[in-house]
Design a protein that fits this description.
By secondary structure, the protein is of the alpha+beta class. Helix content is about 40%, strand content about 30%. The longest helix is centred in the N-terminal third of the chain and has 58 residues, at about 110-165.
């Protein structure tokens, strides 16, 4: 007899199959409802925001630029004479000492000039001896002439006495007188010849000195055929080879370049005019070079050169940064990416710059229309803000009269128009031109103020530019799903975070840095809101 067998699905009653189908349909409907409730409910709750916490920490403001490494002292060794390079004694990277022979120019021509100058000097000395002997002869002759003149004088005196007594005739007396006059003239002539002889001796002595100078010059030129090192250092450049002819007729040809001490280096950095006011001697500097991308080198600002360099309407100033190079890793000519520490704060309340840039949809007010114009209305400010409030601040703090307020409005209107023209200017030039326009505006405002107002305005400008009491800004916090604006006074910034000087914002508070809600079709993204120049 067969045991009870399990019925096959096809053997189940039709009612059971219908119940199974209904149950599966109910499960699918429940899952679809849950998904719809989840997404639709979330959408009804409004957009969600990305937030970041306000923290305490250190902020370091830096000025970034690039420059070229060079030795502190680089001496260019040239040649003051022309000739053919006969010998070379050093090459690239040769260590040299002061006075060491580097090269020699063929000295044969200059040796001949020395010998010729020596012969000329001997001839001049011989001529001097001849002139001196002639002078002695003339003096001897002059002595004999004086003796003869004295004898004639005595004879004349005797003849005068005898004539007066009537012992001789007048003719004898006159003859004696004529003899004396001739002797006196001979004395005068002899003295003149002595003076002429002395002049000839002096001339011969001068010629001797000329010949001595010519000989000294020839010897100097001969000595210059030996090119020696003027300082201790290392040869970083050699411009000549043995057998090459150098010509020093128009300018001094460069033969070698010697770096005096590569353990002391410097970086010449081009700093934009908008940042040069933040640079001070002694500020700490860090920089990197492409040869050692993982290493950071340190230095200090040693000099700020006053000479401006203008290239394509961009004004820069050269800042010299001194750095140590004990391991000789740095080589002249390397490009250094420099970061100059302009200022620093420790343990300050700081807010992310992304929060300062965030603007919720629909929150773009008149103060956000044109960031450059708003910065202009700020009286030189560094960030956004209500231009009317900023204007009122100038009016209240400077106590402007009606005429000054009218002039202030004219200045702001003019600057807004000029700032609006910068919309089509390339980003690379926009900042520089904007700073220049704001500087012009500050000068115009300052010109209409009295001395006391000018002092207060300087404090306002320092505050608005972040160099005195901080600039103004705002962030948004999540208030029951809605963004709430919080006004702040800002201080130093490092590009990622900004110091909070004042405002209703405590440590640990969460500020909105972005929105997770998808942008509506055709709407502009939040990034189109004005960016603060951090």
């Amino acid at each position: 007899m067969m045991a009870n067998a399990t019925p096959s699905p096809s053997a189940r009653p039709p009612g059971s199959r219908r119940l199974l189908v209904v149950a599966l349909a109910l499960l699918l409907l429940a899952a679809a409802g849950a998904l719809a409730w989840r997404f639709l409910g979330a959408g009804a709750a409004g957009p969600s925001f990305r937030v970041a916490k306000v923290e305490r920490g250190n902020i370091t403001a830096v000025v970034s630029a690039s420059g070229s490494l060079s030795a502190v002292t680089t001496v260019v060794v040239g040649s003051q004479i022309s000739g053919q390079i006969k010998e070379l004694f050093v090459d690239f990277n040769s260590q040299v000492r002061k006075g060491q022979l580097l090269a020699r120019i063929d000295p044969e021509t200059y040796e001949l000039k020395v010998r010729q100058a020596e012969a000329d000097l001997e001839a001049a000395r011989t001529q001097l001896l001849n002139q001196q002997a002639n002078g002695l002869t003339l003096r001897s002759q002059a002595t004999r002439t004086r003796i003869q003149a004295n004898d004639a004088k005595s004879d004349l005196d005797r003849k005068e006495s005898l004539f007066n007594k009537g012992f001789i005739s007048g003719a004898e007396r006159d003859k004696a007188k004529f003899t004396f006059d001739a002797a006196a003239e001979a004395v005068t002539t002899a003295e003149a010849q002595i003076r002429a002889g002395d002049a000839q001796v002096a001339n011969a002595a001068a010629i001797v000195k000329q010949r001595e100078a010519a000989l000294a010059g020839a010897r100097v030129d001969l000595a210059r055929t030996a090119i020696v090192a003027p300082v201790d250092g290392i040869v970083i450049s050699r411009q000549v080879d043995a057998g090459q002819t150098v010509a020093a007729s128009l300018n001094t040809p460069t033969l070698f370049s010697i770096a005096q001490d590569l353990r002391e280096m410097q970086v010449e950095v081009a700093i934009d005019e908008s940042d040069i006011s933040r640079i001070r001697s002694g500020q700490r500097v860090t920089f990197t070079v492409d040869a050692y991308p993982t290493r950071t080198f340190e230095g200090k600002v040693r000099q700020i050169r006053k000479a401006a360099q203008t290239l394509q309407n961009v004004v820069t100033y050269t800042v010299v940064v001194a750095t140590e190079n004990p391991n000789l890793l740095l080589v002249p000519g390397m490009t250094a990416n420099v970061r100059i520490v302009a200022d620093s704060r420790e343990g300050v309340l700081k807010v992310p710059n992304a929060a300062l840039r965030f603007r919720p949809p629909g929150a773009v007010a008149a103060r956000d229309v044109e960031p450059a114009a708003n910065a202009a209305n700020a009286g030189g400010g560094a960030g956004g803000g209500d231009p009317q409030a900023r204007r009122q601040r100038l009016v209240d703090e400077l106590k402007l009269d009606a005429a000054q307020q009218a002039r202030l409005d004219e200045i702001f209107a003019e600057l807004r128009a000029r700032m609006a023209e910068l919309r089509d200017v390339p980003e690379a030039d926009r900042r520089t031109r904007g700073e220049r326009l704001r500087g012009d505006m500050r000068q115009k405002i300052n010109a209409m103020l009295n001395p006391e107002q000018q002092r207060k305005y300087a404090e306002v400008v320092a505050s608005e530019t972040g160099r005195g009491g901080g600039s103004s800004g705002r962030v948004y916090v999540d208030d029951a799903g809605q963004p709430k604006e919080v006004a702040l006074r800002l201080g130093l910034t490092d590009g990622n975070a900004t110091e909070v000087v004042g405002g209703a914002l405590a440590e640990g508070a969460e500020v909105i840095v972005g929105s997770n809600a998808p942008a509506a079709a055709g709407s502009r993204p939040a990034a189109s809101a004005p960016r603060l120049p951090f």
